[in-house]
Amino acid sequence: MFSSIAIIAAIAPLAFAHSHVDEIWANNIHYTGYNPNGFPPYPSNTPGWFTTNSGGNPLYPVNTTAIICGVGGSPANISAPVAAGGIVRARWWQPGEWPVSHHGPVLDYLAPCNGPCSKVNPESLKFVKIDQRGWLNTSTWQEGTWAADELRADDQSWNIKIPAGLKAGEYILRHEIIALHVAFEGGAGAEHYPQCINLKVTGSGTKTITGGVDARTFYRGDEPGLDIDIHTTNDHSGYVIPGPPVWSGAVKKDRSFEA
């Protein structure tokens, strides 16, 4: 296996993914996500949260307001309707494709707005994890195949299932990729890419979200799922996905070992 020093040299040109969610589908309706790199940034009418993170740089501190919904994150001005049990699809923008070096888990969280999401205070949001997928198998890469590799292979996109039976109302979907290519550097090595989307869940469900927590408490930075050298082996079958456990009201607790 290569040393970590050799890995740094190999991936240095790809050290930053500089990415954001550029397209969103809900109930098969397409929306353009917020692009902080536009001149001016665009569009203004989107369910994707506004950010000031031009360049889409990763986040390292895990207990700051930025980790909630991105640097300078503020609520989108519309909420995309989606039926409880339906699918939201998010497509990331990246020149070419999500970097092959940026292996890591993909996680999804949901928080009720308790009113219009366009007016919610990000610091008031209490999230539950509704989905997660981490290391998958030993194929393809020296580091093994991860959820982020699966996302890249699916046109930079990820499908998120909204829990069936969820009570109608407005919610924030927090979709996140964590890149682990330099996580061996310690607590500040793992790169977080959180993106938020306003949703208006429809249907006659009665399931309410309980036990949600502030996103600033999701991660410490020194847990095994973030402080890890993924370059020493392609077998990470013991990998523990960071963050709180998956909410009991979600359909699946962990998609990491699906066929």
TrEMBL record:
Signal peptide span: 1-17
Cofactor field: Cu(2+)
One Pfam entry name: AA9
One example GO MF annotation: monooxygenase activity
Gene Ontology CC, one term: extracellular region
Coiled-coil ranges per UniProt: none
Domain of life: Eukaryota
Xref: CDD domains: LPMO_AA9 (cd21175)
Auxiliary Activity family 9 catalytic domain boundaries: 18-235
Keywords annotated in UniProt: Disulfide bond, Monooxygenase, Oxidoreductase, Secreted, Signal
Chief subcellular location: secreted
Location of this chain's protein in the cell: Secreted
Matching Gene3D superfamilies: 2.70.50.70
Stated name of the protein: Lytic polysaccharide monooxygenase
Organism in which the protein naturally occurs: Amniculicola lignicola CBS 123094
